[in-house]
Structures are given as C-alpha cells and as structure tokens.
Amino acid sequence: MFSNYLIGLREGLEASLVVCILIAYLVKTDRRDALKPIWIGIGVALALALGFGCALEFGSQELTFEAQEALGGSLSLLAVGLVTWMVFWMRRTARHLKAELHDKLDAALQMGTGALVATAFLAVGREGLETALFVWASVRAAGDGSPRPLLGAALGIATAVVLGWLFYRGALRINLAKFFTWTGGMLVVVAAGVLAYGFHDLQEARWLPGLKNLAFDISDTVDPSSWYGTLLKGVFNFQPDPTVLQVTVWLLYLVPTLALFLAPVGFASGKGKVKAPDEQGSRPSKAPQA
C-alpha cells in the first residue's frame, strides 16, 4: 500500500504543480477567459488516464494465462523505464518547470483555444498515463487481490491534490530539490521490485528461462501472509522465493540507478525551494473559477 501511496503522491503532486502553475499564471495575467480550455484539457487528460487503466485491467482478463503474464511482464518493464526517465528528468528540470510552462502557455494563448486545451492535456496527460501504467504494474506485483494497493494510490493522489491547493494559495512552500530527490530515490527502490516481478512474469510466460532456478527460498521463515511479509511485499515487492534472474536484474538495476540518481548533481544548493506560483508578482484575490 505504501509503495502505491508514494506513486500516487509523487505523480499526483507533479500534475498538481503543473495545474496550479498554469492557472495562477492565467489569473495573474488577467486571462481568466482562458481558464475553461485549460480545465477541458485537464479533464480530457484525466479521462484518458482512467480509461487507459481500465483497459489494462479488464482487457488483460480476456487473455490466456501465458498471454497475461507476457503482457504484464512487458508492461512492467515499460513502466519501470518510464518512471526511471521521469525521476531523472524531474530532478534535473524541477527548478525550470515554471518558466517552461509559462513559455508554452504564452505560445498557446497566441494560437487560440485549441492550443490551450492541447497544452493542458499534454502537461497533465503524461503524468496520468505514467501513473496508470505504474500503479497497474505495481498492483500486479503485489498480487494479494486486496483493494489496498488501489486505496494507497488513491490516498496518494488525494494528498497531492490537497498539497497542490495549499501550494496555489501560498500556504505551503515546497523544496522541490529535496522532495523529488527523496521520493525519486524511494520510487527507484519500488521500480526495482516491479522490474524483478516483470521478469518473473516473462519467465512464467516462457519467454525467459530459469523459472525453477531459485536464488533462495525462505518461505518457511518469512510468511508472505504475515504482517511483516505483507509490509515487505507492499513496500519492496519482496518475494521469499525469487529466481536467480530476478535477483540479478534487481541488483543490476537498483545499485547503479540509485547511485546515479543520488549523485550530487542537478540542483544547486538552496535553489530548489519553490513558493506559491504567483508570489513573484501580485497574488490573485481569490481562487480561479472553472
């Protein structure tokens, strides 16, 4: 549950920051007439992400077991690739996100309503699709059939919405450098577990060999149904009887990726703190209306 909460919080806060930056800029520049296209683009992006998640869940149920495992494994690898790219990209560009969005919004304002819708859709849609794919892969990796993973993701997104609103109202200051470094590092750990489980899916689909070649088996020591087994499974996607390939892939991904991500590059000291999106100019008198 915690890993999915982290996914929802991280991805949801990115989307919330994008939304409040776009809206605050329009309010600050007295372009409230452009708010409706922005909300339309956001709504379409959210609907697409939800539809994508439903298609993954219900569409895969019509497949054979081996086809399900092949699809799950392939999409798990894709999800890990996207999340890895995302955490490195955000760590590098978080300080410049506001300026980049303002530039895109200025260009869209000159082009008209369709461009505004597209700008909001693209800005939020990428986060939504990444979230849907990674949550789906993480839920498959959890494999306990309970609603807890989805509940965790929903709580994370809800927390992100509240933080985004506080950020917009100027009641919250966020040090993006520290936030995206810590959450990004934890997501790398989660992604390592999803990657290992994805390779296990491909082994069960008979795309890869070594399904019976176990690295170790501590099922008698660590009961997967116990509270600590559930905790390890939920946070790290821990499996008491992994194959040699799973352990190898987990180590080859986690160690170098985490080392590169935590290397002291990308953010200058003290420059990652971001205040309310409009604080460099006049603050809006009230929240924008859709």
How would you describe the overall organization of this protein?
This protein has helices at residues 2-28, 35-60, 65-93, 97-111, 113-142, 148-169, 176-204, 227-236, 244-262, and strands at 174-175, 273-274. Helix 7 packs antiparallel against helix 9 (244-262). Mean pLDDT is 80; it is low at 266-290. It has nine helices and two strands. It has a two-stranded antiparallel ribbon.
In short:
The chain has 9 helices and 2 strands; from the N terminus they run ααααααβαααβ. It has helices spanning 2-28, 35-60, 65-93, 97-111, 113-142, 148-169, 176-204, 227-236, 244-262, and strands at residues 174-175, 273-274.
Strand element count: 2
Mean pLDDT: 80
3D shape: elongated
Summarize the helix and strand pattern as letters: HHHHHHEHHHE
Radius of gyration, in angstroms, nearest whole number: 21 Å
Strand order of the largest sheet: 1-2
Residue share in β-strands: under 5%
Query: Please, how many helices?
Result: 9
Low-confidence stretches: 266-290
Helix percent reads: over 70%
Structural class assignment: mainly alpha
End-to-end Cα distance, whole Å, is 33 Å
Main sheet characteristics: 2 strands, antiparallel
Pfam families: FTR1
Main location: membrane
Keywords: Membrane, Transmembrane, Transmembrane helix
Subcellular location: Membrane
